[in-house]
Design brief:
The protein has 90 residues and is α+β, with helices and mostly antiparallel strands. It is built from 2 helices and 4 strands; from the N terminus they run E-H-E-H-E-E.
């Protein structure tokens, strides 16, 4: 069997509209940070990136630091082991 397996999406999470979704579930630091950074750098100002992660350090430290350093704003929600961060590039 090949490919990447992902946990099923929870039914009670309302996915906001974003310009790009980066699904980093199953990845360990620093890979979620790297993928989020690359996605944000590739998009124009005013874009949003939705980051899905099951890594608590990514959700509570790495992405907030990325946002602070670059002037991005973000929201974060959690449903069990899944965090959904929506980052807006100014």
């Amino acid at each position: 069997m090949s490919g990447t397996m992902h946990a099923p999406e929870p039914m009670n999470v309302k996915w906001p509209s974003a310009d790009r979704r980066v699904d980093t579930r199953g990845l360990l630091c620093p890979y979620p940070f790297i993928e989020a950074k690359q996605a944000l750098e590739a998009l124009p100002s005013g874009s949003t990136v939705e980051i899905l992660t099951d890594s608590e350090p990514t959700a509570t430290s790495s992405i907030p630091i990325l946002c602070e350093r670059n002037g991005y704003t973000f929201t974060s929600t959690r449903d069990g082991d899944l965090w959904v961060l929506v980052v807006e590039k100014p």
